[in-house]
Amino acid sequence: MQTIDTRGLSCPQPVLMVHPHLDADEALDVLVDSEASRENVSRAAAKRGWTVTPCECDGHVRLELRKNGVR
Amino acid sequence: MQTPPPGMALVQTVDVLSPLGNNPTLFGRTAAANALSDVYAMGGIPWSAMNIVSYPASTLPLDVLVEILNGGNEALAQAGAVLAGGHTLEDEQIKYGLSVTGIVDPARIASNSGLVPGDVLILTKPLGTGVLATAIKAGWPGAEETERELYRWTTRLNANAGQVLRDMGLRAATDVTGFGLGGHALEMARGSAVSVELDSTALPFMDNVEDFAGDGLIPAGTYANRRHCACHTTVLDGVDELRSTLAFDAQTSGGLLLAVPAARSEEALERLRTLGEPGWIVGRVHPLRSPAEQLIIA
């Protein structure tokens, strides 16, 4: 499983970093530190069939992108 | 230079933009249309304008600056306003805007605090410049078409909508810009001590805006607008989340939001149509509800 760190970046950079991975068959964690990044990455992932679970930790949020049949 | 007609008052406004899209001339037109818009929203007619420019003359060819200013001049000419001068400063960033002076009948000024329960709200441009500009910045597929759609609306003057406002003697209006439709509607509601209800299903969007927004191309400013308004906003159950967020999309050179007594709403739409101007009924005005319900998204 990969982790993509988008902290410190402003939109649309986080979405651009995550987007190429959304059609791959590998679960993904994305670290975000702003409301815009969190919502935009979540929207993009949900649109491509991923379930997004946000976990808050140490001042940032880890978005866990999971999908049935994908490890 | 002509003297303003006797009995008219002056209104003044200033607005400066960072570059939008990649076409200098159309950016210039956009900045001028954006600055002129305030005058139209007050029921005024643009009279004169001054350019305000910052430009990195040591690193960029002056042709680009000339194109930006030409675009601004085109919009001013279309508005019938005279360019009286301006000021340019050397800076690392390009910025262009104008201070516009308009004339207005002091007995017929429209304000953003004149909403009355029973008014219907008519919006004269679709929403989505924030999302489209983000898609262009991201290099999203279809950039050329996206830029065309963006400029199609941002370069458009609000002159016709302003004429309808003046001809009908409307008392409340605003132009939709950085705070988004939701932010400007809430500003009007608070200024008028009423509640405003926006119909999310009636909101018009520019081409591809909902698709791009679903791809996560919503600018940070849009989320900031939504957060800034949150404690006075109630989103009703069942409202589409994406549409209610896009109600706050930060607009550049957006349309006018006209408040029209309900009985005259068809007349207003007909007058807009006659002038070739679109118009959408996007909301209505209610007596003041609770502070958390000054803006209701239904």
Please give a handful of descriptors for the protein shown.
heterodimer, A: 71 residues, alpha+beta, Translation Initiation Factor IF3, 4-stranded mixed sheet, 32% strand, B: 298 residues, alpha/beta, 60s Ribosomal Protein L30, Chain: A, Phosphoribosyl-aminoimidazole Synthetase, Chain A, domain 2, 2 domains, 7-stranded mixed sheet, 11 strands, 24% strand, globular
Care to describe what's here?
With 71 residues, chain A is α+β, with helices and mostly antiparallel strands. Chain A has one domain (2-67): TusA-like domain (Translation Initiation Factor IF3). Chain A is built from two helices and four strands. In chain A, strands 1-2-4-3 form a four-stranded mixed beta sheet. Chain A is globular. Chain B folds into two domains: 9-107, PurM-like, N-terminal domain (60s Ribosomal Protein L30, Chain: A, 2-Layer Sandwich), CATH 3.30.1330; 110-297, PurM-like C-terminal domain (Phosphoribosyl-aminoimidazole Synthetase, Chain A, domain 2). Chain B contains ten helices and eleven strands. Chain B has helices at 24-41, 62-79, 129-137, 143-154, 159-168, 180-192, 209-214, 220-229, 241-246, 265-274; strands spanning 9-17, 45-55, 82-90, 95-104, 119-123, 173-175, 194-198, 233-235, 256-261, 280-287, 295-297. In chain B, the strands form two sheets. Chain B has a seven-stranded mixed beta sheet, with helices on both faces. In chain B, strands 1-4-2-3 form a four-stranded mixed beta sheet, covered by helices on one side. In chain B, helix 2 links the parallel strand 2 (45-55) and strand 3. In chain B, helix 1 (24-41) runs parallel beside helix 2 and helix 1 packs parallel to helix 5. Chain B is globular, with a radius of gyration of 19 Å. The chains are: A alpha+beta (71), B alpha/beta (298). The A-B interface holds A 10-12, 15-16, 19, 34-36, 39-44, 47 and B 134-135, 137-138, 213-220, 222-223, 227, 242, 245.
